[in-house]
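ESCALATION

Customer reports they have been waiting on this structure for their group meeting. Please prioritize. Original submission:
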Amino acid sequence: MIMRYLIPLLFLASPAAAWEFTPTPICTLTHTEASADVAVTYDHATGLYAIAVTSPSGWPASPAFSIRFDGPRSNIISTERHQTDGPTLTVSDAGFGNVLDGLEFNSTATAFTQTSAVTVSLDGAAEPVQQFRACTQALAA
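Update from on-call: job pushed to the front of the queue and completed.
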Protein backbone atom coordinates (compact mmCIF):
# COMPACT_ATOMS: atom_id res chain seq x y z
CA MET A 1 0.00 0.00 0.00
CA ILE A 2 2.78 2.44 0.89
CA MET A 3 4.53 1.74 -2.44
CA ARG A 4 1.47 2.97 -4.33
CA TYR A 5 2.00 6.43 -2.79
CA LEU A 6 5.78 6.37 -2.71
CA ILE A 7 6.39 5.71 -6.42
CA PRO A 8 4.53 8.83 -7.67
CA LEU A 9 6.40 10.93 -5.10
CA LEU A 10 9.71 9.68 -6.45
CA PHE A 11 8.79 10.92 -9.90
CA LEU A 12 7.85 14.33 -8.51
CA ALA A 13 11.16 14.59 -6.67
CA SER A 14 13.23 13.76 -9.77
CA PRO A 15 14.47 16.70 -11.81
CA ALA A 16 12.71 16.91 -15.17
CA ALA A 17 14.95 16.76 -18.22
CA ALA A 18 13.22 19.54 -20.12
CA TRP A 19 14.29 22.29 -22.45
CA GLU A 20 13.43 25.68 -20.96
CA PHE A 21 13.42 29.21 -22.32
CA THR A 22 13.75 32.44 -20.35
CA PRO A 23 13.82 35.93 -21.91
CA THR A 24 15.60 37.79 -19.10
CA PRO A 25 18.17 39.04 -18.43
CA ILE A 26 19.16 37.79 -21.90
CA CYS A 27 17.52 35.25 -24.21
CA THR A 28 18.41 31.87 -22.69
CA LEU A 29 17.64 28.28 -23.61
CA THR A 30 18.69 25.61 -21.08
CA HIS A 31 18.62 21.86 -20.70
CA THR A 32 19.98 19.56 -18.01
CA GLU A 33 20.63 15.82 -18.16
CA ALA A 34 22.99 13.52 -16.30
CA SER A 35 25.38 13.62 -19.27
CA ALA A 36 25.54 17.41 -19.64
CA ASP A 37 24.05 20.84 -19.04
CA VAL A 38 23.45 22.92 -22.17
CA ALA A 39 22.86 26.68 -22.24
CA VAL A 40 22.30 28.71 -25.41
CA THR A 41 22.21 32.48 -25.01
CA TYR A 42 21.75 35.58 -27.10
CA ASP A 43 22.72 39.00 -25.80
CA HIS A 44 21.11 41.94 -27.63
CA ALA A 45 23.79 44.28 -26.27
CA THR A 46 26.64 42.41 -27.99
CA GLY A 47 24.74 40.70 -30.81
CA LEU A 48 26.42 37.42 -29.90
CA TYR A 49 25.03 33.94 -29.49
CA ALA A 50 26.79 31.40 -27.29
CA ILE A 51 26.43 27.74 -26.48
CA ALA A 52 27.95 26.34 -23.31
CA VAL A 53 28.09 22.59 -22.75
CA THR A 54 29.04 21.54 -19.25
CA SER A 55 30.09 17.93 -18.81
CA PRO A 56 30.68 16.27 -15.43
CA SER A 57 33.76 14.67 -17.04
CA GLY A 58 35.14 18.03 -18.21
CA TRP A 59 36.53 18.94 -21.61
CA PRO A 60 40.24 18.30 -22.24
CA ALA A 61 42.03 20.73 -24.55
CA SER A 62 41.27 19.97 -28.19
CA PRO A 63 41.90 21.74 -31.50
CA ALA A 64 38.25 21.49 -32.62
CA PHE A 65 34.73 21.19 -31.25
CA SER A 66 31.72 19.79 -33.11
CA ILE A 67 28.02 19.19 -32.59
CA ARG A 68 26.27 16.40 -34.47
CA PHE A 69 22.50 16.58 -34.73
CA ASP A 70 20.74 13.29 -35.44
CA GLY A 71 17.18 13.14 -36.70
CA PRO A 72 15.15 14.41 -39.67
CA ARG A 73 17.55 17.30 -40.37
CA SER A 74 20.90 15.75 -39.45
CA ASN A 75 23.91 18.01 -39.54
CA ILE A 76 27.41 18.41 -38.11
CA ILE A 77 28.78 21.83 -37.16
CA SER A 78 32.47 22.28 -36.29
CA THR A 79 34.65 25.12 -35.08
CA GLU A 80 38.14 25.84 -33.85
CA ARG A 81 36.90 28.98 -32.04
CA HIS A 82 35.88 27.36 -28.76
CA GLN A 83 37.04 27.87 -25.19
CA THR A 84 37.18 25.49 -22.28
CA ASP A 85 36.93 26.52 -18.66
CA GLY A 86 36.96 23.52 -16.35
CA PRO A 87 33.92 21.38 -17.12
CA THR A 88 32.41 23.91 -19.57
CA LEU A 89 33.10 24.30 -23.28
CA THR A 90 31.76 27.49 -24.90
CA VAL A 91 31.41 28.73 -28.46
CA SER A 92 30.28 32.27 -29.36
CA ASP A 93 29.32 33.65 -32.76
CA ALA A 94 27.19 36.32 -34.42
CA GLY A 95 25.01 33.68 -36.14
CA PHE A 96 23.53 30.48 -34.76
CA GLY A 97 20.96 29.47 -37.39
CA ASN A 98 22.42 25.99 -37.91
CA VAL A 99 22.62 25.36 -34.16
CA LEU A 100 19.03 26.47 -33.59
CA ASP A 101 17.81 24.40 -36.56
CA GLY A 102 19.67 21.39 -35.18
CA LEU A 103 18.12 21.79 -31.75
CA GLU A 104 14.61 22.40 -33.07
CA PHE A 105 14.31 19.74 -35.77
CA ASN A 106 16.27 16.72 -34.52
CA SER A 107 16.09 14.05 -31.83
CA THR A 108 19.58 14.15 -30.27
CA ALA A 109 22.63 16.38 -30.17
CA THR A 110 26.13 15.06 -29.58
CA ALA A 111 28.74 17.61 -28.57
CA PHE A 112 32.24 16.26 -29.12
CA THR A 113 35.93 16.94 -29.33
CA GLN A 114 38.78 14.67 -30.33
CA THR A 115 38.67 12.82 -26.99
CA SER A 116 35.29 13.56 -25.32
CA ALA A 117 31.61 13.41 -26.23
CA VAL A 118 28.22 13.93 -24.61
CA THR A 119 24.79 13.27 -26.09
CA VAL A 120 21.59 14.99 -25.01
CA SER A 121 17.97 14.44 -25.98
CA LEU A 122 16.18 17.09 -27.99
CA ASP A 123 12.73 15.83 -26.98
CA GLY A 124 10.62 18.87 -26.16
CA ALA A 125 13.18 21.36 -27.51
CA ALA A 126 11.17 22.66 -30.51
CA GLU A 127 8.82 25.05 -28.70
CA PRO A 128 11.47 26.57 -26.40
CA VAL A 129 13.76 27.02 -29.44
CA GLN A 130 10.95 28.88 -31.24
CA GLN A 131 10.52 31.12 -28.17
CA PHE A 132 14.27 31.70 -28.12
CA ARG A 133 14.27 32.67 -31.81
CA ALA A 134 11.43 35.16 -31.20
CA CYS A 135 13.37 36.65 -28.28
CA THR A 136 16.49 37.17 -30.40
CA GLN A 137 14.45 39.07 -32.98
CA ALA A 138 12.31 41.06 -30.53
CA LEU A 139 14.49 44.16 -30.39
CA ALA A 140 15.58 43.87 -34.03
CA ALA A 141 12.04 44.49 -35.29
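Sent to customer with the following note: DSSP finds three helices and ten strands in the chain.
Escalation resolved.
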